Amino acid sequence: MDFDNNKKLYDFITEDPSILTNKWLSTRPSNPTSVYSSDNHQAEAKLREQNGLFIKTVAKVLVATENEVDQEIKAWARTVAVDRVETRTPIHEIIHQFRVFRGVFWEHISQFVMENKEEISGTEILEWSSLIHSTFDIIIETLTEEYHHYYNDRLSVQSELINELSAPIIPLSDSIGVLPLVGEIDTKRAKYITESVLMQSKDYRITHLFIDLSGVSIIDTMVANQLFQIIDILKLIGVKVYISGIRPEIAQTAVQLGINFHKIPTQATLKQALKANKIIISDLHTAQK
């Protein structure tokens, strides 16, 4: 490959990246919910900056070593992936814009070839095609990997936050508490609930805990076993546990799976459970022992 021609093409591409960026941005549809929308003027400056760096990164494959290009690809992909996750941009929209810009990019290279056709061989054009298309593909792959990692990290953080907020003991008195559980409980969440409930029971000095399951949609054998473990551990530290709100479909499933709640005081509703134990919301002083 002729390095002089490579350098000429590199200079042609990078001399004014705004030419390519303007052509790309002119293709944007109107979509208020997308970072790529022609109506999203707030995001345009960042798109111009990111695309300018992208152009230079792709063009650098013509004049730099593979290691240098690889480092720049990773840095660019990481920055853009974080931004696209933060702006909640679906991955299919990102891939679509790569396809659009690839066409703009090659129109620009075609212009260079036409202007210098006497100095460029067919072999060089084929080599440029292979090299640049490969670089585009590597960048797309790297970006989607970074997007996936960052997106999953955010989900993990959000999941931990939800867990923290989804197992609160509500103190009704100095020794009585209610634990309302809501949503689907998997083994991971059940484990977190165990740790959280033990800590809260100790902090609030709970001796009577009412666990309400009316907001729980599914209980399987593994979750039920985890629930029984919570109850057994609470008993060891002096906490008496009461269950309320087992929905009919859950009760039916429990029977089919051989899950036995008979050893635990149960009531249809939290109100009934409190009343059965002589706990009145307006006068929380005693609980049946």
In short:
By secondary structure, the chain is of the alpha/beta class. It has ten helices and five strands, in the order ααααααββαβαβαβα. α2 packs across α3, α5 runs antiparallel to α6 and α7 packs parallel to α8.
| Coarse morphology | rod-shaped
Question: Mean pLDDT across all residues, rounded?
Answer: 87
Biggest β-sheet, characterized?
5 strands, mixed
Radius of gyration from CA coordinates: 31 Å
Discrete helix count: 10
**How do the SSEs run, as a string of H and E?**
HHHHHHEEHEHEHEH
Protein name: STAS domain-containing protein
Pfam family, one: STAS
Organism: Mesobacillus boroniphilus
Keywords: Phosphoprotein
Could you give the topology of this structure?
Elements: H1 3-14, H2 17-25, H3 41-59, H4 66-86, H5 91-115, H6 122-165, E1 170-171, E2 176-183, H7 187-204, E3 208-216, H8 221-236, E4 240-244, H9 248-257, E5 266-267, H10 270-276
Parallel strand pairs: 2-3, 3-4, 4-5
Antiparallel strand pairs: 1-2
Helix pairs in contact: 2-3, 2-5, 3-4, 4-6, 5-6, 7-8
